């Protein structure tokens, strides 16, 4: 815990230039192939367009980390089993493994999962989609370049006319 | 006695000892050192230096591995502290973990603690409202607890004194219920909050919606620059520690100020076991300290002692300070020590929506919100419950994006959120009535890791609190309806006492030594060189966030203590 170390380190932690990836080695709950598949899955949810998609922003690593470290234990199984069932569903749906499908085929499969009467499939989809949106919107790239997060606003103006295009700020 | 011991005793002797470095201990340290006293400040937790020891103060949102969500193992290991709104990935280092400092819940009580230099002043909510005579006269008028030995006139100049130094923003509203202070400019309102203010003023003569008075430097004065503090930058991540010193904390203000005098010795990792009472001299002579790292006990000595260990821990220290003269705890001739504890009732809340003012929004962030001072039972008893409640209030514009799609459409939608309507909300801050049956005591067998008896806490709501929750919900619903708010929803969290982090009393002030622990100078009736000026001294709680009152009482008591020392009275 940072608190216990506080008296021993001479540099403040924020001056050490660490990145999220170097602090903890994440508890791996997915195999290499499951991780690769998750990357394709999140990329289908938020694809690369004229800006990077979820895979390029490492959102699949974020999803895995959150499920491993923060979510209730059963969510790990939801994620693992959901990924394991994905290629089978893809073959039924479009005759290829998930990663080999084109955008339309993959998107159609995700839409099918979102409407599935199978609770496990629906839970898997909701879990990954929710975390993908969160991981994407709170990524450095998006907050810095697209939503222009202000770490130090320096002000609060209470009554501002609505701009034609308004982008909200979150803490 | 050997020479060595005489030397050791001299080395460990100061003019004053301050137990605790939180919001009131910091003020005691500043005032006593400022008046020339060599002062030992004992802090049970580790040192936290301003800026240097705020590890997450400049952490960007995306740099938090879990985006500020608590890890599962942290939550599972800390069911109590995990309930606190301010405890998250970026602030874990400033809160006491459940297992480290055990206590006994005779009744459910979530005890939220910050053991470090600065205490909870690092993570507090920074609301600073003055008391008025409607508050100080409450117990006497309504027949509960005991009469306060002071009135507004006694403390008013000390409110001014601490406000100027700490930096309090606010508007001079001219309300008898919430006296004006020495204010820096107030924070801004948004359009819907203004609308609510106008509607409430139009319907009720005695209900006011004002901007909260908050310990934020909105316009720095020389005294703030002298502390090395600058203007608040509206980051609204205060509880991680502020590199600008934009809000008041012991760490940014009083402790470094005291250090600059050269008169302060700050000793972190020093858990106070008890206060030493000398039966022959008839006074306290010092304190017994357990070093939290070595577990070794050392004695320190001083002419006067300020006890500022935070409300419940100050009770614990006195209860554990037994002697032949005081078998039931230091200064406890009356038997009231540990009893008549109280807190603030934060259970109720209300939220709604508003579909007006759609051509306006807000820009930036505000570390504060509007405030509704108590309006119930102010001039006379008018409800079926005693006393009343204050309320926080705020409005904000929502935004949303359609997240049904998958793929490029979803991305497009996420990056182009649409403004929604306004949401409004309020929470209650109710006065609770101090009762003998709400108490803390020492457990007879269980000890903490330092060999000190664990504290048993028996503090609970009563029927008066339930009635007040109901009234708050009804009255705020009426006010929200008057303002045209829609989809009004009330709630009662039924949260245990403690989460308000406004526990008070147990060492109450009073006029009569037979029914109180402290006199009007926060001095133990029976041990004149011991002063208790944190939340434990509170005779009643009223509805205001209490820290400003602790600061003022501390500065006032320190002034008296030093004058009394010079006259040979203590």
TrEMBL record, chain A:
It comes from the Bacteria. InterPro entries: Gluconate_2DH_su3. Pfam families: Gluconate_2-dh3 (PF13618). This is Gluconate 2-dehydrogenase subunit 3.
UniProtKB/TrEMBL annotation, chain B:
Keywords: FAD, Flavoprotein, Oxidoreductase. This is Choline dehydrogenase. InterPro entries: FAD/NAD-bd_sf (IPR036188), GMC_OxRdtase_N (IPR000172), GMC_OxRtase_C (IPR007867), P2Ox-like (IPR051473). Belongs to the GMC oxidoreductase family. GO terms for molecular function: flavin adenine dinucleotide binding; oxidoreductase activity, acting on CH-OH group of donors. Its cofactor is FAD. Residues 434-553 form the Glucose-methanol-choline oxidoreductase C-terminal domain. Residues 225-322 form the Glucose-methanol-choline oxidoreductase N-terminal domain. The keyword Flavoprotein applies. Pfam families: GMC_oxred_C, GMC_oxred_N.
